[in-house]
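User: Um, what's this?
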Amino acid sequence: MLCLFGVAALWGATNPFLKKGTEGIEHVGKGSKVSQFLAEVKFLFLNTKYLLPFLLNQSGSVMFYVTLSTTELSVAVPVVNSLSFLFTLLTGKLLGEDFGGERAVLGMVLTMVGVTMCVGSSVLEADSAGLRNMSHVSL
């Protein structure tokens, strides 16, 4: 669970910084679509305000991939996605962004209730499966 929390923190906390790092990309202009794309890629990857959060975000992706080897997918995905949403809102708020008011808070609460129910049911299901398997063991 600690790794899932770390992934969510890396993914969520970097989102507002990625958004700030892309400021100014709309002023990059080239003739063809291919040269426009290459100019935008150059703009992003030579911009440390974008590149550092991007690398941290991608390290979260590597951590998530490694964590999936020991974590059930049906638990990992909702936990990480909902927590990363919360980290994005909190980091954005710390950076002075508007986070949507009462409706956003209600959405966060409902998301956390739903994830808690998913994780709780997975834990209960795993516990009951373990008890069923233990009853078939003969001594």
Remarks:
- The helical segments are 2-21, 33-45, 48-67, 73-94, 102-135.
- The radius of gyration is 20 Å.
- Residues 2-135 form one domain.
- The chain has five helices and no strands.
